[in-house]
Design a protein that fits this description.
CATH architecture of the largest domain: 4-Layer Sandwich
Strand content: 25-35%
Shape: globular
Order of helices and strands: HHHEEEEEEHHHEEEEEHEEEEEHHHE
Number of strands: 17
Helix content: 25-40%
CATH topology of the largest domain: Phosphatase 2c, domain 1
CATH class of the largest domain: Alpha Beta
CATH superfamily of the largest domain: PPM-type phosphatase domain
Distance between the termini: 62 Å
Structural class: alpha+beta
Largest sheet: 7 strands, antiparallel
Number of domains: 2
């Protein structure tokens, strides 16, 4: 039993880090759950897998059989068409959400309407619950249109403002919420693409058949991310903030945003997105793909571009291609990569 107690002590330390040490009972419960799961995995390894797999899965976040039902949407304008799809997969719950607003003139906020030439697409990959991701999926477009910078035509600043405002709104309205989400969004105008990203979901552009990154994954070990985490009083252990969170930017995740005297935008886990923009080239730009890490953990950016390009090239609809991509990334068993929730949006620019 000595190894079990070692696992339990480690789990308790991590749980106290998550709760800030202020809520001892929740920390103990979380520690016990983690210790039991890890110890079960140790026993499976030692016994050559003889422990009943179904019993183990019942204590984990995995199902014995994946849920492969797809939920999709499609549409477009004279300038582009899009398709999206999401799938729960092996996980016990669905924590992803998305935004697909093809005409921002239909979105109003604070007496301000969006531009009919603007479309917004986004993927939100939730963790420790779906509440934050669900709210973002339903409301990011409104927060973008309501940003003061949007009315002034400063679209990069408007995207940053929208992310910060929605994060602070959620903190005020749901201060005890523990969940969080990544947020990758693509604002499509007549002349350019603007991608805002916080977390490790990703957006790539296919230009002349080549994958052009429009976002970069925010991992805690990146030097610029690590410096901010440490300045905010945090630490990185085994590639995770406080030994818990495997990404360094997110909306929500309020237990990691409690450092007194540190501005909201500079907390250990920040909601501030990096924004990249590219001018549209009608001759070379083919499509853009937004997806959560359930896709990118399995395929590289170029692999995804090759997969999508081949199928769009033979006339398949973007939504159908999204569904095929998720099926291709789904793991055959509830172990390793390909077991996460999956969400994909394809914006066909031709």
């Amino acid at each position: 039993m000595a190894p079990f107690f070692g696992v339990a002590v480690t789990a308790l330390a991590l749980a106290l880090a998550v709760t800030g040490g202020a809520k001892v009972l929740p920390a103990l419960l979380l520690a016990c759950a983690c210790a039991v799961l890890v110890w079960s995995l140790v026993k499976v390894c030692r016994s050559g897998g003889s422990t009943d797999l179904d019993a183990l899965l019942a204590r984990s976040d995995m199902l014995a059989k994946p849920i492969t039902t797809k939920h999709g949407e499609s549409g477009g304008t004279a300038r582009f068409r899009f398709g999206l799809s999401c799938m729960q997969g092996w996980r016990r719950g669905m924590e992803d959400a998305h935004t697909a607003a093809v005409d921002l003139s239909q979105t109003k906020s604070g007496g301000q309407s969006g531009n009919a030439d603007h479309a917004l697409f986004a993927v939100f990959d939730g963790h420790r619950g779906s509440a934050i991701a669900t709210f973002c999926g339903a409301n990011l477009a409104e927060f973008l249109v309501g940003a003061s910078a949007y009315g002034n035509g400063r679209l990069k600043d408007a995207l940053v403002e929208a992310y910060v405002n929605i994060d602070q709104h959620l903190k005020r309205q749901q201060p005890g919420e523990m969940s969080g989400c990544t947020a990758v969004s693509l604002l499509v105008t007549r002349t350019e693409l603007l991608c805002a990203n916080a977390g490790d979901s990703r957006c790539v552009l296919c230009r002349d058949g080549r994958a052009v990154p429009l976002s970069f994954d925010h991992k805690p070990n990146l030097p610029s991310e690590l410096r901010r985490i440490q300045r905010a009083g945090g630490f990185v252990f085994r590639g995770r903030v406080q030994g818990v969170l495997a990404l360094s930017r997110a909306i929500g995740d309020f237990p990691f945003k409690q450092r007194m005297g540190v501005p909201w935008e500079e907390q250990a886990v920040t909601c501030v997105p990096e924004v990249q923009s590219v001018s549209l080239d009608a001759r070379r730009d083919e499509f853009a793909v937004l997806a959560c890490d359930g896709i990118w953990d399995v395929m590289s950016s170029q692999d995804v571009v090759n997969f999508v390009r081949q199928r769009l090239g033979r006339g398949e609809a973007p939504q159908a291609v999204c569904e095929q991509l998720m099926d291709a990334c789904l793991a055959p068993r509830p172990l390793g990569l390909g077991c996460d929730n999956m969400s994909v949006i394809i914006v066909d620019l031709r």
